[in-house]
Amino acid sequence: MHVPGWHDSTTALQDAGRLTMLGIVQEQHPDRARLFMQWRRMDWPILVDSLNLLGVSVVPVTVAIDEHGIVRLVNPRRETIEEAFLDRTFEPPPETAAPAGEARTAPGDPPGRWAPVAAWRRHARDLFLWGGPEAIGPAVEAFERGASGAPDAAATFRLGVAYRARYDSPAREPGDFRRAVEHWERALAADPNQYIWRRRIQQYGPRLDKPYPFYDWIPEARAAVLARGESPVLLAVEPGGAEFAEPIKTFSADTRPATEPDPTGRIYRDRGEFVEIEALAVPRAIAPGAATRAHLVMRPNLDRRAHWNNEAEDLLVWVNPPEGWDVDERPVTVPLPPALVSQETRRVEFELRSPADASPGRVTVPAYALYYVCEDVDGTCLYRRQDVTLEVEVRR
Asked: Which residue, among 51, 39, 21, has the nearest Cα to 164 in the 3D structure?
């Protein structure tokens, strides 16, 4: 990898005080970068630019900055960094007035009702960066105001980042993940050469479209850190299946014989009373013959003290793809935890491929989940079915 390569090849220069390293990551979840740094024993500072305020379209970018704060080289070679940069003497810049900056450590007051869109974008940025966890709701609202003017791809992408951040927080609102994906897709459609935005979608998308497994190194990193007698950095959000998945070159449809568990719909429905299911496809829009990855997120209704009953069969999801569509796994099952009852969020992922001759338009993919759920501590335990639909748009 690029960063460890630079670190390993310049350790002596860092130890001698000739070179100081500083990193900036474009991560939605920066604590994963902290774990990576801990694993590789890289102890230099890392800044976080989840919003892509730098405006870079590709990574990595290596910048050599001298003692005067002047950028001298962009993407220098590790093999020649001493000759091309460290061994050279650079003259200080002429005395000029420093440009006025926007140094902030806390968000200011919200703009007035009739403030321009640019003011709302700045306020949204400040809330996101400096407002703390409790400010994520107001930050989303400010980003929404900031994206309401003339189309702006960067503002649209940042609104998606804010939706996903709220989705990962206690302030989560239904549909936040879907809204994040929608806005990332709109931003990428406006600027299809933006590598950073494309990667954010691919992180949750199908294996056919993945350049590499995004976070498959995490188990190895944790094991190595534990073996050293250290405690691995805790992750606020554990990566899901899509973030570990290996890329593939050919879609593999599940052709195994399988019997639909409830073909006539006789099992009683849970219409969200006991379990809330959020379903979305990433990406939402695909070309004919392309694939998308389905995400089903299942949360017991804590207001009713609902919980999973783990004494029976595994949770099962059955998909009925439209004519000509393929699914990579059917049925999909979720193994039960050892505890007799539990209230964890359960996630199911599978992939769908549209026919090569699919007509443009919106396609509804029906599916349903079967599970055992109980209400309250000593309440009745039930076997229930919940129907879900996935919306996918085919575009030529």
From this structure: 51
Cα separations in angstroms, 204 against 149, 210, 304, 354, 369: 28, 9, 31, 18, 21
Provide the greatest CA pair distance for the chain. 81
Residues 196, 259 share a domain: no
Contact at 8 Å (CB) between 157 and 176? no
Residue 177 sits in the same domain as residue 265: no
Q: Which helix (H) or strand (E) holds 128?
A: helix 117-130
**How far, in Å, CA of 277 to CA of 295, rounded?**
10
Both tokens of residue 50? 């989840």
Residue 201 zone, left/alpha/beta (φ > 0; ψ -120 to 50; rest): alpha
Amino acid, res. 368:
Y
Same domain assignment for residues 295 and 181 = no
Range of the domain at 151: 117-202
Residue 289 lies in a domain: yes
Q: What is the tens place of the pLDDT at every residue in 199-253?
A: 999 999 999 999 999 999 999 999 999 999 999 999 999 999 999 999 999 999 9
What does the pLDDT read at residue 367?
A: 98
Query: Cα(322)–Cα(330) distance, rounded to whole angstroms?
Result: 14
Question: Is the same domain home to 190 and 294?
Answer: no
pLDDT given for residue 99 in this prediction: 62
Name residue 47's amino acid: L
